[in-house]
Specification:
Layout: H1 2-28, H2 42-67, H3 72-104, H4 112-133, H5 137-151, H6 154-164, H7 184-230
Length: 231
């Protein structure tokens, strides 16, 4: 908690600065020769999609921490990250639909990339529901960790779906073995926005973990008070 108290203000300030700079660069960047001004949706859609997968990967590591190393903070990290990941995934789906309408002529298609991201959103919702449905914290932590690891198989499917199947979604243009294929004038605003949203994610995650730790301490104190009253 003390670490979060020190880091959160700095992370919030850094995220605000990076996002402000990124937004300025995004509107100053040239329009795409095919998509026109619509390409600017990329500067928020792509970071949302990256963070949706990164958050679930972080949850998978936390799940290993729960099942293998039995670290008490691992379950806190997993439970705190799930709602944030769900929001980023929902925003990726919404902004993707807005971007897809003028490009594809439809709000939604059941192609491999979109469907696998939608499955990721359902996985987030399932993990959130599971952690709240079980009263026993130990059982809830174990069940959520198992479900998270089982669902992690979907992350590489999202990543490589455009290469494994014929989809409407464009292939990777930034993280490629042969280097980015996107123009530098479009790439730099995207990277700054992605960094800003990443810092924002860690800020929100630390805040959520701090709140969860305090909630568990209050719950433990209440259980102790109830047992003392019964004795």
């Amino acid at each position: 908690i003390a670490l979060a108290d020190r880091l959160v203000p700095w992370l919030a300030a850094l995220a605000a600065a990076l996002l402000a700079i990124g937004l300025y660069m995004s509107f100053a960047a040239p329009e795409d020769y095919q998509q026109g001004s619509t390409v600017r949706i990329m500067y928020i859609h792509v970071p949302f999609a990256w963070l949706a997968m990164m958050c679930y990967s972080l949850m998978a590591i936390s799940a290993l921490g729960t099942l293998v190393w039995r670290h008490p903070l691992a379950d806190v990290a997993l439970k705190s990250a799930a709602p944030i990941g769900a929001v980023f995934t929902a925003l990726a789906l919404v902004t993707g639909s807005i971007w897809g309408k003028p490009m594809w002529g439809t709000w939604w298609v059941w192609d491999a990339r979109l469907t696998s991201v939608f499955v990721l959103f359902l996985m987030y919702l399932g993990i959130i529901a599971l952690t709240r449905a079980l009263d026993d914290p130990g059982r809830a932590a174990w069940a959520a960790a198992v479900m998270t690891l089982v669902g992690f198989v979907n992350v590489p499917i999202i990543k490589f779906s455009v290469e494994w199947w014929n989809t409407l979604h464009q292939p990777a243009s930034v993280f490629r073995l042969d280097g980015p294929t996107i123009a530098p004038s479009l790439l730099w605003p995207l990277l700054v926005m992605a960094l800003g949203f990443t810092v924002l994610f860690f800020c929100l995650h630390l805040m959520a973990m701090r709140t969860e730790i305090r909630r568990r301490r209050v719950a433990a104190m209440r259980r102790m008070a109830a047992r003392s009253a019964e004795a």
